[in-house]
């Protein structure tokens, strides 16, 4: 695919048997652990379907574990306690991912790159998982790494797989890769317990799964992104092979950009939305918007169309997955409403829409129904009635469109 135009090549790669080179991974995430509004047109077509409350109640009833190796929950061990009960700081503290092995082409590697050996378990709602789906498509790995998508609803037992009936009949969940688990697991936690019955971490997506040895290779999206970028290169043809999302000469700048964008933007929306004190919320939301101002200034000064001019990198992927969710969800659900993107950040808005509308890997992996339903109906501590706001309409504006109030500006 020509990344600049988003045009896919006709030829797919024939697996090459030549040995792959070893890649050294640089430092990744270090988990430390003017208001405006948009006007809706008078008559609108709902962009996607929301489900009824009766159905939601039924779903919640279904959301019971299969009974395999479940851990008892007590008040301190409830999956939706984003801030630990009793933590007076009111701060959300993201946990470190647990599984950190690498697919590697080096001789003797435990997880060598192979066609149809690895699988990604993802949620379309989740920005971290979305990173890996974008990279999978950009790197031409669609016939090499398979994927499946969990139901958008995360209940008391965490992410669950869809049922065959939902996959066939429920319009709110339908989408590429939304299928029941092939061995009949009902919840993602069963996958974690299948490799470690004593696992005590969170049951997060994405999960990079080895179908051959039935192990979790890695559940940290920033590292999965790096593996997809380099380790399958000898199994794909040009131009996928030479697309480098983490090029040597930009690594320092990419790492520096990740450092502030991860903490203040990608994780910043969660720290704002999950805060349980006014003080923690305000501190995080102000820091988030200062970081967005910084991103706006950077994109406004550059030729574009990408963060680093004409070179598409990890930075575009990692920032995109947060920005595309911003107006539809974070503005209202996480109270990130000092401004919105479409009317408050023209350069970010232009950059985001270029990626979405011109490069299929971004649009095809964005599912607004999953995104909106997940946040508004799973975080019942934030939205107890599980009512999903209709707007903004549309979820994303067309390339040349502006919100009415902005369009009228001088
Ligand atoms: N650091 C992880 C974070 C992944 C993550 O937090 N995923 C969320 C969904 S957006 C999740 O699965 N949460 C379930 C839970 O925490 O119980 C990564 O980047 O892969």
From TrEMBL:
Alphabetically sorted, this entry's keywords are: Cell wall biogenesis/degradation, Cytoplasm, Oxidoreductase, Transferase
* Catalytic reaction annotation: RX + glutathione = an S-substituted glutathione + a halide anion + H(+); L-dehydroascorbate + 2 glutathione = glutathione disulfide + L-ascorbate
Q: Name one GO molecular function term.
A: glutathione dehydrogenase (ascorbate) activity
What is a single Pfam family found in this protein's UniProt entry?
A: GST_C_2
Report the EC code(s) recorded for this entry.
1.8.5.1, 2.5.1.18
Q: What does this protein do?
A: Active as '1-Cys' thiol transferase against beta-hydroxyethyl disulfide (HED), as dehydroascorbate reductase and as dimethylarsinic acid reductase, while not active against the standard GST substrate 1-chloro-2,4-dinitrobenzene (CDNB). May be involved in cell wall organization and biogenesis.
Q: What is this protein called?
A: Glutathione S-transferase omega-like 2
């Amino acid at each position: 695919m020509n990344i600049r135009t988003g045009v896919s090549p006709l030829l797919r790669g024939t697996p090459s048997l030549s040995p792959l080179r070893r890649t050294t991974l640089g430092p990744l995430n270090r988990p430390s652990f003017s208001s405006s509004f948009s006007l809706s047109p008078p008559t609108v077509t709902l962009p996607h379907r929301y489900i009824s409350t009766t159905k939601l109640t039924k779903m919640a009833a279904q959301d019971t574990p299969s009974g395999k190796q479940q851990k008892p929950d007590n008040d301190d061990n409830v999956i939706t306690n984003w801030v630990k009960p009793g933590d007076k700081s009111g701060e959300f503290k993201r946990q470190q991912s647990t599984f950190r092995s690498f697919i590697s082409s080096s001789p003797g590697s435990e997880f060598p790159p192979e066609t149809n050996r690895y699988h990604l378990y993802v949620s379309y709602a989740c920005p971290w998982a979305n990173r890996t789906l974008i990279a999978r498509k950009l790197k031409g790995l669609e016939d090499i790494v398979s994927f499946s998508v969990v139901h958008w609803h995360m209940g008391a037992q965490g992410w669950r797989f869809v049922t065959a009936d939902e996959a066939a009949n429920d319009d709110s969940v339908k989408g590429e890769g939304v299928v029941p688990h092939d061995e009949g697991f009902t919840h993602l936690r069963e996958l974690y317990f299948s490799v470690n019955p004593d696992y005590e971490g969170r049951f997060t997506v994405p999960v990079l799964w080895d179908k051959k040895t039935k192990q979790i290779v890695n559940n940290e999206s920033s590292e999965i992104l790096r593996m997809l970028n380099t380790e399958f290169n000898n199994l794909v043809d040009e131009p996928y092979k030479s697309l480098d999302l983490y090029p040597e000469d930009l690594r320092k700048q990419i790492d520096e950009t990740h450092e502030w964008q991860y903490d203040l933007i990608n994780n910043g929306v969660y720290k704002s939305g999950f805060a349980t004190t006014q003080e923690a919320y305000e501190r995080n939301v102000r820091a988030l918007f200062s970081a967005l101002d910084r991103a706006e200034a950077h994109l406004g000064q550059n030729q574009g169309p990408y963060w680093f001019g004409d070179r598409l990198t990890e930075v575009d992927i990692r920032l995109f997955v947060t920005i595309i969710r911003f107006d539809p969800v974070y503005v209202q659900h996480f109270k990130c409403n000092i401004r919105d993107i479409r009317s408050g950040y023209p350069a970010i808005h232009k950059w985001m829409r270029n990626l979405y509308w011109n490069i299929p890997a971004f649009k095809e992996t964005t599912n607004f129904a999953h995104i909106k339903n997940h946040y508004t109906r799973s975080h019942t501590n934030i939205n107890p009635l599980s009512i999903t706001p209709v707007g903004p309409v549309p979820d994303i504006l067309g390339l040349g469109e502006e919100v009415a109030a902005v369009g009228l500006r001088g």
